[in-house]
Amino acid sequence: MLFKKLSINNKSIFFFVFCIVVLIAFGLRLYGLDIKPMHFDEGVHWDYFVRKISIGEPLTYYPNFHGFTSWYLSAIPVFFIENSIVAMRVAVAIAGSLIVAFWWFLKNGVGRFGMLVSGAFMAISPTFIYYGRHVAQHTYFVLFTLIVVLSVFAYLRTLKNRYFYLSAFVSALLYTTHGFSMLFFAILVSFAGVAYYFTIDATRTTEHFRRIARAFSIKTFIIGLLIFAFVVTAVMSSFFADMSGLSDFVRNQISSSEFQKTFNTGHNKPFLYYIKTFLPIESFAFLGFALYFFFFRRTYFSMFTLYWTLVSLFVFSIIPYKIPWLFIIVLLPMYVLSGITIDEILKRTRQNRIARFFVCAILSVLIVYTGYLTVLYNYILPTAYARENPLNYVGPVNDSYRFISDLKNVAGRIDNPRILIGTNGVPESRYYLNGEYLKIIPDDVSDLNPFYSSFDIFVVPQSASYDSDMVKDLGLYEIRERYFVRLLISAPQTGS
């Protein structure tokens, strides 16, 4: 009865329920943003990008860190508010919440109830929340991808140029966010050929292609291309402050070195790694994906979503380089496809109360289970080892709190402390020192003999040798799973 009222008699209640879903998404992503210490990658991103942007310094392009868009967006709160973990993460948390808000525009392609149900699961998704509270490119990538899909299909449906221009603008932001945008563009373009070949209605398809061809002019294409080029140029040149970033970016795209890091790294994983990791966590997405083949909907949007999901899942599985936060790029089309599946199931069971009750019961169990995992992984065990929290991949563990506290206390007891960070693995500690360190040795230091007289505090690898008469050992700290650092302080400062 409730579904019937919502779908036919009361659109305002339907909209109100969706607003509640969006508010839940914002609340879960913004609450306790500083509950987890800074991640290793967040420390790198702060040091290389966010810090520089906040003080007005042009950026240097590093291929492994992709384009500049995500860093500018993350730096906005830091520039206007303060330099804190909350300020660092709030922009990406808002972007993650906006993904759910933009779900509203899927109601035509997915179906109203499918949109509402999948949007609710997206709002409480353990994975999207965990990585939506992590300073990186991937949440922005998902948001821009969703907007491009919405704008492209809006253009194809209405043939209004403003949607084409919007898709060009957001595509530029997507392109300057992460190198995997090229995969998405390839999926988008190649589907046109797939749709034309496996057409639903040959006469209707041919006529629609003719309508698009008549409406789409060279002028429209050139304007869209100029919009794309302008945004890419502005972002990658630090808004025209340094053109070397743009030239390096273009040179890297031509050489295709963007994807060189996908091989021969410590993150190489087997083909089924993503499926094994996320199947228990994102059961709604995987179940909806599997059931779609039994509740197939023959529309261009649903066919595209299936194609998008299959290609993404296959490509990300065959690429050896696998890190969990990349998988939200695949989860996006899976959530859309799951919404289509649920909507189709609800339509087919409209006249069968028992079947409808059974479907609603399964969804209720799934949403309670998903909510439990969200609370467990994001708020109870956010820094647990990967065996307890598979989302905390190479992330901070509980000992990080002790390391941060001791490091700040030691630095606070010394006037103008000279700090040597002699390890590749602790860029996050530089953030907590707020610029107090004097020098960073970028590689692991195996012998401290040359540095005793130059520094007061040493953060070094576990294996580093040292003279116990020259420094005092404050202990080992496990700042990431199975990654230890040693904190030393010079003997004169200890009073020994």
Keywords:
single chain; 496 residues; mainly alpha; 2 domains; five-stranded mixed sheet; disordered N terminus
Topology:
Blueprint: H1 2-9, H2 11-30, H3 40-54, H4 69-80, H5 85-101, H6 107-110, H7 112-123, H8 126-131, H9 138-158, H10 161-175, H11 181-197, H12 202-215, H13 218-236, H14 244-255, H15 273-278, H16 283-292, H17 300-318, H18 328-348, H19 353-380, H20 399-412, E1 419-421, H21 427-432, E2 439-440, E3 457-461, E4 471-480, E5 483-490, H22 491-494
Parallel strand pairs: 1-2, 1-3
Antiparallel strand pairs: 3-5, 4-5
Helix pairs in contact: 1-2, 2-5, 2-7, 3-4, 4-5, 5-9, 7-18, 9-10, 10-13, 11-17, 13-14, 16-18, 17-18
Describe the protein in words.
The protein contains 22 helices and 5 strands. It has helices spanning 2-9, 11-30, 40-54, 69-80, 85-101, 107-110, 112-123, 126-131, 138-158, 161-175, 181-197, 202-215, 218-236, 244-255, 273-278, 283-292, 300-318, 328-348, 353-380, 399-412, 427-432, 491-494; strands at residues 419-421, 439-440, 457-461, 471-480, 483-490. A 5-stranded mixed β-sheet has the order 2-1-3-5-4. Helix 2 (11-30) runs parallel beside helix 7 (112-123) and helix 3 crosses helix 4. The N and C termini lie far apart (78 Å). The relative contact order is 0.10.
How big a fraction of the residues is strand? Answer: 5-15%
User: How many domains would you count in the coordinates?
Assistant: 2
Tell me the radius of gyration: 25 Å
Structural class: mainly alpha
Overall, the morphology is globular
Main sheet makeup: 5 strands, mixed
Number of helices: 22
Total beta strands: 5
Mean pLDDT: 86
Which runs of at least 5 residues are low in confidence (pLDDT < 50)? Answer: 1-9
Question: Which bin fits the share of residues in helices?
Answer: 55-70%
Strand order of the largest sheet: 2-1-3-5-4
